[in-house]
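=== RUN LOG ===
request id: a7f3
mode: sequence -> structure
chains: 1
length: 405
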Amino acid sequence: MQADLIIVGAGMVGSALALALEHSGLEILVVDGGPLSVKPFVAEGAFEPRVSALSAASQRILERLGVWAGIAARRVSPYRDMRVWDGSGTGSVHFAAASVHAEVLGHIVENRVVQDALLDRLHDSQIGLLGSARLEQLRRSGDGWLLTLADGRELRAPLLVAADGANSAVRRLAGCATREWDYLHHAIVTSVRCERPHQETAWQRFTDDGPLAFLPLARQGDQHWCSIVWSTVPAEAERLMALDDEAFRHELGKAFEWRLGQVTAADPRLCIPLRQRHSKRYVESGLALIGDAAHSIHPLAGQGVNLGFLDAAVLAEVLLHALQRGEQANDVRVLSRYERRRMPHNLAMMAAMEGFERLFQADPLPIRLLRNSGLNWVDELPDAKALFVRRALGLVGDLPALAQA
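=== RESULT ===
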C-alpha cells in the first residue's frame, strides 16, 4: 500500500495533523494499532479518567478543523479561574479569565471525547484510515520508508510522521535519540464527586510529596465532579492505590484541605509513572515527530496535548507552504522549519514545568519562605498574572494560522 504521507498514530495529535492536511492534495494514510471505532456517547455515563485542559489556542485549532462542535455536543467543562497554593505555607495565587476580558481560561475535556470527535471527522473525510495495524518493522527504502505491519502487510511513503505517543514505535525503530529522566513520581488519576461545587475553578495544591490538582467536570449540569491528578512518590502512590474506596476518599479530602468539602464518591483509579522525554531532533529526511512522540512533560499544568496540537498545526502549515512553492514535503530542509519553530517553545514549557516541580519539592526553610512570599507577591501583580493568563490561553508567541484569533 502506497501513500504520500503516512501518519502513525490516530490519537488526538495525529488525527489533528491529518485533518489539517485534508485539502493539501497529498494522499494521506493514518495507521493505528487500535480499531479506530467511535463509541456512542452516553451523556449520563461515567467520566473517562484521562482528561486534558484545552487552551483557547487548541480550541481555535479544533474549531477550524470542524471538530469542536462534536466535542461540545458530547461533554466539555469550562473553567474561568485557577487557584494555586502551597500546602506547606501561606502562599497562594489566583488567576482569572476576566483579567484579560476572556470568558474562560480553558476547558477540561476527557481525552476520549476529543478523540471520538476527531475520529468522526476522519471517517467523514477522504483521508485513508488503517486500524488494528501494529507497526513491526521500519526501514529506509529508496527515497522513502517501508513499514511492515505485524500481519505482514507492507506500507510505503516518502514522508512519515510519528504521532504514536510517548513510547513511540516509530521513534524507536528509526533510531531517534532522546533525553529522558524519571521524575520518581507516579500520578494517580480518577474522577471524584465533592460535597461542594467546583465553581468552574481549577484547583492546585502543592503538597510535600507533589502537586494535587482538582479539575472541574460537568455532567448534565452537575458541578460537583472533578478530575484529579495526584502526583506523589512511588511508595505513597502504592499505599494510596491499595486503600479501599472510603479510605482513599478520606486521604484525598485531607490532602486537598477539604476545599470542596468531603469527597463523596470516586471512580476507579489509574496510577501512571511519570517520565519526561525529549527527542534530540524532531526531524530527519522524510521523518517528523510530533506530540508525545517528540516530547512528554509533567502533567502539572495539563499542557501536553496543547503542545501537541500546536506541533500538528505548525507542521501542517510548513508542509502546505512548501507544497505551494513546489518544494518536496519530505526534504529535511522543509521539515527543519517545523523543528525550528516548535522546539524552543516546547523546551521552554518543559523547563518551566521542571522548575515548578523542583521549586515546590525543595524542603529547606529559606526556599519555602521564598516561594510562599513569591506566590503572594505575584498574586498582587495584575500585569504579571495577565501575561501568564494570555500565555496559557495561547494568545502570545509564534502561533500557526490555525491557532490565531
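=== NOTES ===
The first strand starts at residue 5 and ends at 8.
The chain is about 35% helix and 30% strand.
=== END ===
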